[in-house]
Amino acid sequence: MKLLRSTFIAFCLTPGALAFTATTSSLSKTNVAAPSKFTTQLQMIGIKSPMGEGIPDDDMILKEKLFRQVLIEKNTVMDYLDFITEESIKATYGIASAAEEEEAGSESFAEVLAEKAAEAESNGDIGLFGGGDADSSSTSMEDIKETRYQPILRSDLGSTVLVSGTADATLLKVLNNNLFGQDNINNFQFSKIKALVEDVALAKKTAISREARYSGLLDKLSIEPSSGALPTAAELEGASSWIAQITANDAATLLPQVAELAKNSNDLKHVVVLVTGATSNAVEGWGALEAASGGDFQCTLVAVGELFAGGKEGGLYHVGKLADATDANPASSGGMPSNEVYQLLGHALALESTANQALTAYSYSQAGIEAAAAPYAEGEFTARDEDGNEIVDEMKDVKMYGRLLQGLREIGFTRTAELDVLVGKGLTGFQEFMANPPKREDSFTVARAKRDEEDERIMALLDAEIAKDEAKKKAEEEAIKQGEIEVIAQQWAIKEYSLRSIGGDVDPSVTEMDFIKSVWDQALVEAENTYDYINSSEYKKKLEKTAKNSLGYENKLFWNGMDPLLRKKREKMVEKVKQQYMDLLSEEELEAIILSE
């Protein structure tokens, strides 16, 4: 885990990293250019930066704090994933906690792991291109992968799967379950994959490739012309699993027909329907399919918006309950890459957690991606309006979901396990864990403690460096302030010397320098009061009000709210000009002369 966390730090510091980069500038109202020298995150963890050292500005300090908060939030996600992994292992293998092991002498996880490894070495051949052999029910190294999370899989998918409305190559690869680099799905044991499409020639052109030939897909696949939008009862015979694709416009008509076909089939046990072009959190016709399922078959609905090509695999996307979706969602791009959708569709068939569920999926918009990179914590990270009031963070759930998805990817959860966590437990499970963290005193705690110890060491370095930078900045600001106060004190003393000399309060033998020295302490006090006033919010509001009142009066002698000293000065000038030129100039000409001064 230490390596993974170090990798995360390096990833966050990589310029241009997509989706999960800890970009913090989006929280700033203005983009402030970085100074030529500042302390970077690399320096804070002991790596020298070629940019040198120096005192960072406020924007840089804020970025460091945001970066630190992202690390803290990621640690919380890791704790949560450790916990649900442990729970899944206990449920799958019946492993007791450390306390139960000591009391009852139950097998520890290490002992179970050793047994599974021995079985994996003695049983089961490795199929072509890394896939399992014909009997994939035997224990394999897949059962004891590093992630170790054990999702609950459907038990009766059968040997034949029917696909209607599409013959997408990505979906067929998932169902084939025998491709190098693809996570094998233990309950996918299909010996026959039947696809019904409108254009057989086009489907074969896209589905049949060298990769399909070497992976054994062509030995299982048959592509046949469809008789309509849905297969007939005869075409469904022998299929225990069925994946159908329809459009949202046809859903109200076709979903009840899907329900009837599934209900009347003797062989069909599982139905997954992809509805494309969905624009709301309700799909008409789903209720009929759900009601018909009963105990005869399991059904799953996946509603998506527009399908588009070219999406990058493993991007930032959302999967959740359709009923929880909102029509106006700034985090949604309105669609999803087709390869991601068909991956999701295949894995949804494998999981028990997706049974009898209506799901929705969408890739994140640019606004959602930027939000997911920022901390979801509140307090000093909360955005505020001009009056200082907190602004409700509409993207908080998006940020938390993004952090959860990041943790799943960083640890290395399989796509099937990832979907099981997102659908079976969802964001609600993560939020409940944060609200009431369970007490865990078993073997997993030891490994986590070592990881947390290293994280705390890095956090201590970050805190110390931030405190050091803030102290330097404070000292520099204090020096600047003192210099400005001394300038004001000098000006005050000079003005005071002039006024007192005119009033005869200063002996003629006293020079200006001697006078300044004699009143310097008083000058500093007056200067500090003046400095505090001109930097106060009251003074700033006064300047803003004066500027607002003077707007449009550039060519006027007097206006409401003008500075009293300026008014008095101009009144004297008017009086003087009138006395000199009363008989020669008009009122307009007098105004022009005064304004030109």
Write structural notes for this entry:
The protein is 51% helix and 9% strand. Mean pLDDT is 77; it is low at 1-52 and 124-147. By secondary structure, it is of the alpha/beta class. The strands form two sheets. The chain has an eight-stranded mixed beta sheet with strand order 3-2-1-4-5-6-10-8, with helices on both faces. The chain has a two-stranded parallel ribbon with strand order 7-9. It has helices at 2-12, 41-44, 58-93, 98-104, 109-122, 169-176, 200-207, 210-214, 217-220, 233-236, 248-263, 286-293, 338-350, 366-372, 396-411, 415-435, 443-502, 512-518, 520-534, 537-549, 564-581, 587-595, and strands at residues 160-164, 192-197, 221-225, 241-247, 270-276, 298-304, 306-308, 317-321, 335-337, 357-363. The longest helix has 60 residues, at 443-502. It contains 22 helices and ten strands. The radius of gyration is 36 Å and the shape is elongated.
